[in-house]
Amino acid sequence: MSVRPLRPEPLTRAAFASFGQVIEAEGAETRVVNGGHALRRHALAAVEPGPDGRVILSIFEATPRPLPLVIHMLERHPLASQAFMPLSDRDWLVVVGEGDAAPDPATLRCFRATGRQGVNYRPGCWHFPVLVLGERQDFLVADRDGPGANLDEAFFEAVTIAL
Ligand SMILES: NC(=O)N[C@@H](O)C(=O)O
Ligand code: NI
């Protein structure tokens, strides 16, 4: 059965809660620090490196995929979380799905994130690799380095994103 096209929806903490955390200043616990010269938006997400893992920071230089955007697979990192924070203020897309051994394509959701929103996928969250719109966009990525297999992929009939 083919799945209807995905329509991007706004990224909110509530809507994303079962997939992980949204990294954004709005609504965060805020602390005035550095003698009033900085605001600390505190504990926006929990980076989980998993067993025998360490947290590493990387930069992804992501380039646009051909249009129309089709989702033909999802991946997950069963051992650890993975966070993406855009380094430029441009909207980007986050695609996730539900499922245990494999994602259910009927549960796919597409979120349109602003350039001031990042996500931290919880361990095991089915997601599509980082998706940018129109031009190259760089991201700071916090995820795991360590032993073990931390990537599962599942393929299915392509689902289109209706931009
Ligand atoms: N391959 C890689 O590190 N990136 C993916 O995990 C991703 O979610 O973009
Ligand atoms: Ni990933």
UniProtKB/TrEMBL annotation:
MF terms (GO), sorted A to Z: ureidoglycolate hydrolase activity; ureidoglycolate lyase activity
InterPro entries, sorted: RmlC_Cupin_sf, UAH_cupin, Ureidogly_lyase, Ureidoglycolate_lyase_dom_sf
Entry-linked Pfam families: Ureidogly_lyase (PF04115)
Keyword line: Lyase, Purine metabolism
Residues annotated as transmembrane: none
Catalytic activity: (S)-ureidoglycolate = urea + glyoxylate
Record Gene3D superfamilies: Ureidoglycolate hydrolase (2.60.120.480)
Annotated GO biological process: allantoin catabolic process; purine nucleobase metabolic process
PANTHER family, per the entry: UREIDOGLYCOLATE HYDROLASE, UREIDOGLYCOLATE LYASE
Subunit (UniProt): Homodimer.
Protein name: Ureidoglycolate lyase
